[in-house]
Amino acid sequence: MGRVSVAVELQSKYETVIGMEVHVQLLTQSKIFCGCSTRFGDPPNTHTCPVCLGLPGALPTLNRQAVTMAMKAATALNCVINSESRFARKNYFYPDLPKGYQISQYDEPLAENGWLNIEVEGRRKRIGITRVHLEEDAGKSLHEGFPDSDRNSYIDLNRSGVPLIEIVSEPELRSPEEAYEFVTRLRTMILYLGISDCNMEEGSLRCDANASVRPVGTSTFGTKTEVKNLNSFRFLHKALAYEAARQIEVIESGNKVEQETRLWDSRDQRTYGMRSKEFAHDYRYFPEPDLLPLTIAEEWKEEVLRSLPELPDARKDRFERQYALPAYDAGQLTSSKALAGYYENVVKAGADPKLAANWVLSELMHLLNEAKREVTESPVRARDLAELLSLVAQGSISGKMGKDILVEMFSSSKGPRQVMSEKGLEQINDPGMIAAAAREIITANPKQTAQYRSGKTATLGWFVGQVMKSTRGQANPQMVQEILKKELGGVSG
Ligand SMILES: [Zn+2]
């Protein structure tokens, strides 16, 4: 089967229903049930012990830090944290799962009934969070990169027992765009909390989606498929768009969508059926006998609540209020904790908030993107940018000159005044020099001069531009304006 293309009018007859399951690897030092390191990228099988190797008789001990981090996520997602939850064994066979079961949570999860806001066409939409639970990661099968990879696979158990949280949403997302937005927002939130690096390439953020379609206006759910392997934001969107179109085609051709697990194949740009979907009873869940129920006292919950940083939505609202920024700018600036922090440092160092927002979002972001750098690696310090912006705001330098200086600041990490003196970009504040330049322009443009003198004073801006140009942007713009008015003389009529 090739690409699925469903006519637009047919697509508009259907509504897509999506629920997300997101696994997030927590940034603890050690694994969830043993003291082994969680460090990524070390030689295979160097962070293992009897517990995470699943040797008989080894007993798990719960990592308190993992629980605290999971509670942070659950609290930020407005969930109710259960005072008592329970670990359960999820039984299945896989070569990278030495115990033959995964310790997870089942019918008594850590937290339930929360929500996360997403923004759709400028409006906030609340997406329900069904649950947040803790579990251990499995190891990793290595099928590539060895001389005998055509015949053998290898197993690395460094990841076995690394703590994960699974976040499950309600099926309240209505398009691939909304699913994309949901995961983006969730990732931003987790990064604000500092509990995961959310690196999709290294697998610290993994998404699966349940997707179904139904005729617009109906309320019963269609048969859903579980789409796995959505390990980049781009794939997530493409795979869900593909899957929705595929299901519409199946239904329109008189067939039934099968409940199954499908994998996204990024090379062929399609999903394909992997196996019929397992049901919970296939896993023979039962309470983990080697761990006590997880009891969480009120004080612990309060401690976690107090430790939460300001979250993205709240920060965005505050930026709109405190700095009088448009919603779009506030949203962009708070889309990363680091960017929001940088912006606030520029403002705290004395820059005008609106001017700072424009320069950070356009000029600085442009330079950072070109250099493929994060804002945390910006060669321009916040206080240097603030100083530059003050010079622009006072009219000491023109905006154009400011942009040139910023480029130089970016490549050299120097402050604006140093760049200006080194480049001979010092401002011309000498009235004599400016008057001479002004007279030259006036003499060379008798037509415009006559227009101005006959009352078309709007041409003043044109004169200012000419003088700025002839002084390579170095003349003090305010002085240019004043001197030009004087030199052009009184207006008749
Ligand atoms: Zn271990």
Q: What amount of the residues lies in strands?
A: 15-25%
Give the overall shape: elongated
Average pLDDT works out at 91
User: Based on helices, strands and strand pairing, what is the structural class?
Assistant: alpha+beta
> The biggest beta sheet, please?
9 strands, mixed
Give the distance, in angstroms, between the N- and C-terminal Cα atoms: 80 Å
What are the distinct ligands in this entry?
Answer: zinc ion
Cα Rg: 30 Å
* Contiguous helical run count: 16
Number of separate strands:
16
* Unreliable segments of 5+ consecutive residues: none
Helix content: 25-40%
Strands of the largest sheet, in order across it? 2-6-7-10-1-11-12-13-14
Please, could you describe this protein's structure?
This protein is of the alpha+beta class and 493 residues long. Helices cover 39% and strands 19% of the residues. Helix 4 links the parallel strand 12 and strand 13 (260-265). Helix 6 packs across helix 7 (327-333), helix 7 (327-333) crosses helix 9 (353-370) and helix 13 crosses helix 16. The strands form four sheets. The protein has a nine-stranded mixed sheet with strand order 2-6-7-10-1-11-12-13-14. Strands 5-4-15 form a three-stranded antiparallel sheet, with no helix packed on it. Strands 3-16 form a two-stranded antiparallel sheet. It is elongated. The mean pLDDT is 91. It has 16 helices and 16 strands. The protein has helices at residues 8-11, 64-76, 176-193, 233-252, 298-307, 312-323, 327-333, 337-348, 353-370, 382-393, 399-412, 416-422, 431-444, 446-453, 460-470, 477-488, and strands spanning 14-25, 80-81, 84-85, 87-91, 101-105, 111-120, 123-136, 140-142, 154-156, 163-169, 205-215, 225-228, 260-265, 270-276, 286-287, 294-295. The site of zinc ion has 8 residues, from loops.
